[in-house]
């Protein structure tokens, strides 16, 4: 945090005679603010710094290659998965971007993807925080985004880390739950290999609770991070659900990724209660397998938690969505479903989540023919073997830093609560930092910066600039292979152009306005590129004009 504190001067006349101006006791202070994009990012990424590194490349005397490499290093401090998250993150950061008050949020997600893809193309390596190898050994259970994030951060700090993964390959839901048209295997494999290259040992095909016990890991390692994920589908609890052609969403996607031939027939009904990304992915995969697909969702489009762009693409691909409808049962012939019974819904009073509760409409039941059904309701962890950690239906309660009830054991990711990939990555990083503190005795570091919003910005300073977005490939070109990537991303030129829309909320971007508007010549330009402006207090009258004209809200008067 940048905070240049200056001594207050007394309230006194500046000079004698007509026209003399009185001095205010207030003086300017440079106070870095926390941008709302970073505040909203569950992974804690330094988003403003990444964007301004590209936007200010020329003014700072950097080539584009140098700026991209530096931006990649900034992201790599908090996340090992910029190319992955640039493809699959729902971009909560953009929901809070102050630029929304103008033409729309900066396309942070796509700029991150461009930076991540540059890192892959150039073979960039993360910076180690220490050179020595520490004596402590840490075990990580689960090679999904949370477990790998924790392993990455611990390895950067010099710890010897072993990751235990029950599946044949690492990646967790990134590999088995997200289709290739959104996240190609090559992108995921490269970013995982970068973690392993730090010295992380990976043991696949080892299931904790079957091949090794929790107690054995606790005895054999100095610390343990549990990141099991939540890869079990939750049942609908309606009659006929035990049919052979009724799948859970996570099981369906897992079997598809493992290359299993799935004969869905010409009509598929995807049952959606939560309206999440798993349901949309299952529907779009089904389209790629030649099925006609209908999604049922018990609320309206406005309440769907799935990424809005992915819902749009599903509709473009011919997926049909029936809103305000829910399953009540199935009609079977033998051991197979041949139709689903559904009921119309209407929205009533808000529930505990704040969303309006769906209520069945009396007498509105109807039937939809189906040759297969995919139930994408929710997910739960398989916590067998972790009974000492578990509470309720398989979830692990943790403190803010991921500490569990057992000494020396931390947990994070979906085994704690169902959430986003970026949330899981943040859990892993924060747990790694806590584990490191448990070994070194260091104190946690808080971020005291206040969050800055548009009431502190001078929005009229910023020139109009429309948001750039990539154009997805034509629907007719998507189904030749099931894993053809639909979204090509921004070009490097577009990523640099989009980065200039960042308003650098809360930190100087060298607009010179404070210097230009100061009548008292009380502000000095920085001596070197990238430096901060300074105040010549002997000239300052405390008029606050510098604060008033600062577009990004970097200057306070105290």
Strand order of the largest sheet: 5-4-3-6-18
Q: Label the structural class.
A: alpha/beta
Instruction: Estimate the helix proportion, in percent.
Output: 25-40%
Q: What is the CATH superfamily label of the largest domain?
A: FAD/NAD(P)-binding domain
Q: Hey, roughly how much beta strand do the residues contain? A: 15-25%
Label the CATH architecture of the largest domain: 3-Layer(bba) Sandwich
Count up the helices: 17
Tally of domains: 4
Instruction: Give me the count of strands.
Output: 21
- Poorly predicted regions are 4-18
Distance between the termini: 17 Å
Write down the overall geometry.
globular
The CATH topology of the largest domain = FAD/NAD(P)-binding domain
Question: What features would you describe in this structure?
Answer:
44% of the residues are buried. This protein is of the alpha/beta class and 558 residues long. The model is unreliable at 4-18 (pLDDT under 50). The chain has a 5-stranded parallel beta sheet, with helices on both faces. A 5-stranded parallel beta sheet has the order 8-16-9-10-11. Strands 12, 13, 14 and 15 form a 4-stranded antiparallel beta sheet that branches. It has helices at residues 36-40, 47-55, 64-76, 82-88, 92-96, 108-122, 145-156, 173-176, 185-196, 214-220, 249-257, 277-288, 308-316, 421-440, 492-499, 513-517, 545-549; strands at residues 3-4, 28-31, 137-141, 160-165, 201-204, 223-226, 232-233, 246-248, 267-271, 292-297, 320-323, 325-333, 336-350, 356-360, 366-369, 372-375, 379-380, 409-411, 523-524, 534-535, 555-557. The chain folds into 4 domains: 1-8 and 22-32 and 507-558, Alpha-Beta Plaits (2-Layer Sandwich), CATH 3.30.70; 36-124 and 457-476 and 488-499, no CATH class; 137-231 and 381-440, FAD/NAD(P)-binding domain (3-Layer(bba) Sandwich); 233-378, FAD/NAD(P)-binding domain, CATH 3.50.50.
């Amino acid at each position: 945090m940048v905070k240049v504190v200056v001594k207050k001067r007394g309230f006194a006349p500046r000079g004698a005679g007509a026209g003399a101006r009185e001095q205010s006791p207030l003086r300017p202070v440079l106070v870095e603010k926390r941008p709302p994009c970073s505040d909203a990012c569950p992974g804690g990424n330094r988003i403003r710094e990444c964007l301004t590194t590209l936007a200010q490349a020329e003014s700072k005397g950097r080539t584009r290659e140098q700026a991209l490499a530096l931006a990649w290093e900034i992201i790599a401090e908090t996340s090992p998965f910029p190319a992955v998250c640039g493809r699959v993150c729902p971009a909560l950061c953009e929901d809070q971007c102050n630029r929304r008050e103008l033409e729309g949020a900066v396309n942070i997600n796509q700029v991150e993807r461009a930076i991540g893809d540059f890192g892959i193309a150039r073979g960039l390596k993360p910076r180690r925080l220490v050179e020595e190898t520490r004596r402590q050994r840490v075990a990580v259970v689960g090679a999904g985004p949370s477990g790998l994030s924790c392993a990455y951060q611990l390895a950067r700090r010099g710890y010897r880390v072993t990751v235990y993964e029950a599946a044949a390959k690492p990646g967790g839901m990134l590999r088995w739950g997200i289709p290739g048209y959104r996240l190609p295997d090559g992108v995921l494999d490269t970013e995982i290999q970068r973690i392993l290259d730090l010295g992380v040992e990976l043991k696949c095909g080892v299931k904790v609770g079957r091949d090794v016990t929790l107690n054995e890991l606790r005895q054999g390692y100095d610390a343990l991070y549990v990141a099991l994920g939540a890869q079990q589908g939750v049942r609908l609890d309606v009659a006929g659900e035990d049919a052979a052609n009724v799948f859970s969403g996570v099981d369906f996607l897992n079997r598809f990724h493992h290359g299993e031939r799935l004969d869905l027939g010409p009509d598929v009904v995807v049952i959606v209660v939560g309206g999440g990304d798993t349901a949309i992915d299952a529907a779009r995969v089904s389209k790629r397998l030649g099925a006609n697909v209908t999604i049922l969702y018990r609320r309206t489009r406005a309440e769907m938690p799935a990424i809005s762009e992915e819902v749009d693409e599903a509709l473009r691909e011919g997926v049909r969505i029936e809103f305000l409808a829910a399953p009540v049962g199935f009609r079977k012939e033998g051991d197979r479903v041949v139709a689903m019974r559904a009921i119309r819904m209407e929205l009533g009073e808000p529930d505990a989540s704040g969303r309006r509760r769906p209520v069945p409409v009396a007498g509105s039941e109807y039937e939809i023919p189906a040759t297969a059904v995919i139930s994408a309701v929710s997910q739960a962890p398989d916590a067998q073997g972790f009974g000492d950690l578990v509470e309720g239906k398989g979830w692990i309660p943790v403190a803010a830093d991921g500490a569990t009830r057992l000494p020396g054991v931390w947990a994070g990711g979906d085994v704690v609560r169902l959430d986003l990939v970026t949330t899981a990555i943040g859990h892993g990083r924060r747990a790694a930092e806590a584990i490191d503190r448990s070994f070194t005795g260091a104190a946690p570091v808080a971020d005291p910066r206040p969050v800055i919003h548009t009431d502190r910005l001078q929005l009229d300073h910023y020139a109009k600039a429309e948001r750039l977005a990539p154009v997805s490939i034509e629907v007719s070109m998507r189904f030749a292979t099931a894993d053809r990537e639909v979204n090509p991303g921004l070009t490097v030129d577009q990523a640099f152009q989009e980065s200039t829309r960042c308003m650098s909320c809360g930190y100087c971007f060298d607009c010179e306005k404070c210097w230009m508007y100061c009548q008292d010549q009380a502000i000095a330009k920085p001596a070197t590129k990238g430096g901060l402006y300074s105040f010549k207090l002997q000239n300052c009258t405390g008029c606050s004009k510098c604060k008033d004209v600062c577009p990004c809200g970097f200057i306070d008067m105290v």
